[in-house]
Design goal:
extended, two-stranded antiparallel sheet
């Protein structure tokens, strides 16, 4: 009988310990995923963790007392299995080209149909905050990337096709600059806008947010160097958001300017365009 009572008491203790009721203990946030498995990034290989010895070896007698050898450990990290290829970089250039072309069509109103404009995602204005997102602004609205190829499709409706051609005509070279009268993209207009948060300047002690005594507000007292190199007073968090612009088309003339005594004209003409070079590493222009 004693054994039965002891077994029953043990069972109650186990059941009581397995309860999911919140008892006030610090157990961490429970609304997070239980497990995390990192996927292998495409085109990258994992460099495993390792260690190595730094410093002089045991034969460096004169320096053995001042520079001792030490062992360091390097954490695992991902690395590209090869340098970026011409074809991979060309994919990025084409995305920049298509985004500029679709913006031009939106500004000109080309591509409008019964459902709206084919080059932007139609969003119910009642479901978005007008202070955060303006779907009617052609410069900032969300682009419909599923229709990116329709910018260059010659088989569309005649009215739409003509309107798209008129909207994107400024993206091409003018007649006086064309070679053999070929209509080509003016690569000088492939400008990419990008943004980043300058964490180094935000981490400086003098640039931290200073709370007032009752923590009801505060202000910034420091200064930052903006993307143009100007020293400006910190207004708020936006002062740490930097903006840059860059022409994304590679400077293929570097094959001739950097190698004066080599016959590299074929490389300058074809390296970024010819299919035979598509899997080669992009030149560091």
């Amino acid at each position: 009988m004693k054994k039965v009572i002891i077994a029953a008491a043990s069972g109650l203790l186990v059941l009581g310990g397995c309860t999911s009721k919140d008892t006030g203990e610090l157990i961490g946030a429970q609304n997070r995923p239980a497990n995390y498995a990192e996927t292998d990034p495409y085109g990258m290989v994992l460099i495993p963790q390792g260690s190595c010895n730094l410093g002089p070896n045991d034969q460096d007698v004169p320096f053995s007392m001042t520079a001792q050898a030490k062992t360091i450990t390097v954490d695992p990290f991902w690395m590209d299995d090869t340098e970026i290829t011409n074809n991979e970089y060309r994919q990025f250039v084409e995305w920049v080209r298509d985004s500029i072309a679709m913006r031009l069509c939106l500004i000109a109103g080309a591509g409008d149909d019964a459902k709206g404009n084919m080059f932007k995602i139609n969003v119910d204005e009642d479901k978005v905050d007008p202070n955060e997102y303006d779907p009617s602004d052609p410069k900032t609205c969300w682009l419909n990337w599923e229709n990116r190829d329709k910018v260059w499709d010659k088989s569309g409706k005649s009215e739409n096709r003509q309107a798209i051609s008129d909207a994107t005509k400024d993206l091409f070279l003018i007649k006086e600059e064309r070679f053999n009268k070929l209509q080509e993209i003016d690569t000088r207009k492939l400008i990419y806008d990008y943004y980043w948060v300058d964490l180094r300047q935000a981490a400086l002690k003098q640039n931290r947010y200073n709370f007032n005594e009752d923590f009801t507000g505060g202000k910034y007292d420091g200064t930052v160097v903006d993307a143009k190199g100007n020293v400006v007073q910190i207004q708020d968090r936006r002062s740490f958001i930097m903006q840059g612009r860059i022409n994304v088309y590679p400077d293929t003339l570097c094959w001739m300017s950097d190698y004066t005594y080599s016959y590299n004209e074929p490389m300058a003409r074809k390296y970024f365009l010819a299919r035979c070079f598509r899997q080669l590493s992009r030149c560091r222009c």
